[in-house]
Amino acid sequence: xxxxxxxxxxxxxxxxxxxxxxxxxxxxxxxxxxxxxxxxxxxxxxxxxxxxxxxxxxxxxxxxxxxxxxxxxxxxxxxxxxxxxxxxxxxxxxxxxxxxxxxxxxxxxxxxxxxxxxxxxxxxxxxxxxxxxxxxxxxxxxxxxxxxxxxxxxxxxxxxxxxxxxxxxxxxxxxxxxxxxxxxxxxxxxxxxxxxxxxxxxxxxxxxxxxxxxxxxxxxxxxxxxxxxxxxxxxxxxxxxxxxxxxxxxxxxxxxxxxxxxxxxxxxxxxxxxxxxxxxxxxxxxxxxxxxxxxxxxxxxxxxxxxxxxxxxxxxxxxxxxxxxxxxxxxxxxxxxxxxxxxxxxxxxxxxxxxxxxxxxxxxxxxx
Length: 368
What we know:
Blueprint: E1 3-6, E2 13-18, H1 25-33, E3 38-43, H2 44-58, E4 65-70, H3 79-91, E5 99-104, H4 106-118, E6 125-129, H5 132-138, E7 143-148, E8 151-158, E9 164-167, H6 176-193, H7 195-207, H8 213-233, H9 248-258, H10 265-283, H11 292-302, H12 312-319, E10 332-337, E11 340-344, H13 349-366
Parallel strand pairs: 2-9, 3-4, 3-5, 5-6
Antiparallel strand pairs: 1-2, 7-8, 10-11
Helix pairs in contact: 3-4, 4-5, 5-6, 5-8, 6-7, 6-8, 6-10, 6-11, 7-8, 9-10, 9-12, 10-11, 10-13
């Protein structure tokens, strides 16, 4: 069972990954609560499927336990929902000896982490990601936040968890579309790392067993190790950690243009990675020859993204509101080779428009 440490000075924490790691949850909670209470916030679907199993493994007296179920979907990731959580926590007189536990996918860990960061100027929290997106990416690194109607993740703070526990068996009940959503993040990491991870991802897809836990554990571990290394070097997203935004500038725009909730985040990431690759080809056509295996992988994944109406003008407008926009221009993470990311200035509206036209046309013909 892999244990990957996020080695941030004074803020480091373990990421536990594997089958059966849920049994380590009591020890992790006891280390983090210092005798206080535990406030658990569940994704609604996880609550129905796994709440009894989780509680059995927590082994905490009822008087020290508070539970609340969160509404499902991206629309719950809002200041409106955060305000409801503040009301509940303050009425329960939460204090800094307590622990907040987020059990769910990326929406849950982003929202609950943000609430933990901003109430009483910071309450300790832990994450039990229950989706592939959460395990592979969202729960690790301390980025917390909510959406605004002008864009995704425009309101948020950095607040590292005390631990992240990824019980791989929870993926057995994950709907296929949610699994594909998580694979979008893994595709991103395959491009950022190249080499072994790219080969493992191709082998995984070739077997056509999407619920192969051994393969998923290996892929998740490779992605977490890469991310943990960047987060340790650049906690606040000022330098190399920005490589993790590969495909995401486009992805957030696709999500907003489609209407939040219609296109899942990881699905948008698949389209975003395709757009980032095409941008690189337009800027330097000689790069294309280095990406044949990776491009085939991205094309294969695009076929699993469900059809959704996305207008070019809406994507262009959404790009103008990206939270990393500086002086009216976006920066883009591209690849010179698989495993060799770099950051470039905005290549200009005409190139971006050309990229988006091609990717949207490809998506309309190839999307599931």
